[in-house]
């Protein structure tokens, strides 16, 4: 904890994020109160909900600084658990999946985080993609219900991949040992979060300003080519400017940011497609009080593992 | 009947709420201390505890479940839970569902209504699962007649439909380990027996009032 506070660059970065959030919160309040503002009421509400979510993410991040890497593992494990719970609640499963689901929640998921905690890289990297991928169909087959077998297997496997495997790479970043960067891993997590979330925001803003050509209107009517490219360029530029907080050179930082943005876009689009498939607008719209985690982490889920693997491969040999 | 909530009941309610993360929605009425019969679809052993825990505590203290005697009197633990902890009204469903003769069924059916009416008394509310047994959760099964007879006998008591969703996925029939999915619980608009309404028509309408509250996959 003390190390985190003494890390000047980390505090600078986090402080900047908080200042930006305060400004955005004030703007959000004004938009909400002003009846003849240029944005519509739903847009203003949407904006405020997003800012509220960012405050929560900041609280989670600050907490993870306070409790250190091991505490962060628990924190992210809980987040994974809640995300998987939300996913499984809304994705239809059958009676024959019951025991497989039990294993997914109480064995596979905790095991994944345990292996991340042990820093047993070779095993945690294949735990869900390989082990669970074999276990899940076997377990469903043992239950004896063959109806929609492939579909059911995929639903559970994908839920574990997104909510368990992908998310677990966020605390894994905190455990990386990068020569010359010891004790500063929290900056990498913050860097990923900032570039990723700013990409979301800038995509949205560019889309509203100059968006014309929709990418896949059936999946997400808000996503346009202009918005996506505008977001990609501006968020990559922003990420490049943050190189001083990372072990990267400015050029490397640009490459990392570019990757994070592309994957953030893909993650957001895929989670949207899942929502359309199961016939909901947002996860949070059905589950009011506790829902909405998946709506917020959608763009992070693909970026996290790839960013982790890139950093590990090139910077933590 | 002693007043107040048994501590074990409160504990079990808290555990059930934790597992099922129940999302309560009062869609058709507000929580009220007046006498009511809450009737719901039934798919899981956790149904009663979750529904009961969804009620505000001042209402909870006077809400009693109707439970099957054959099941809840089988072991001492079940009997203790039913009688002492949840103050359940144990009724004989076996004789109603598998009548040896028409006469006997009528006789037992009448005493069942007597028992439930007595349990209502002047102050209590009841929690009732009119399907009489746990279903698969795909659709709400046919209702037994008890709800109708009770409603005719006590027209002053409000009949509140309740729909419980995902309970069959959390702890389905035949399983003993729960999966912590979220359940949705919706309280609907109270119904009553209309003048000249037949028993069959009322029960069908009551069933419809429960199943229409479904939230996932209804759009």
Short description:
The complex is a heterodimer of chains A (317) and B (219). Chain A has 317 residues and is an all-alpha fold.
Describe this protein's structure:
The complex is a heterodimer of chains A (317) and B (219). Chain A is mainly alpha-helical. Chain A has one domain. Chain A contains twelve helices and no strands. In chain A, helix 2 runs parallel beside helix 8. Chain A starts with a helix and ends with a helix. Chain B has 219 residues and is an alpha/beta fold. Chain B has a single domain, classed as 3-Layer(aba) Sandwich (Glycerol-3-phosphate (1)-acyltransferase). Helix content of chain B is 40%, strand content 16%. Chain B contains ten helices and seven strands. Chain B has a seven-stranded mixed β-sheet with strand order 1-7-6-2-5-3-4, sandwiched between helices. In chain B, helix 1 (7-20) packs across helix 2 (47-54) and helix 7 (102-120) packs across helix 8 (146-153). Chain B starts with 6 loop residues before the first helix and ends in an 8-residue tail after the last helix. Chains A and B meet through helix 3 and helix 4 of A and loops of B.
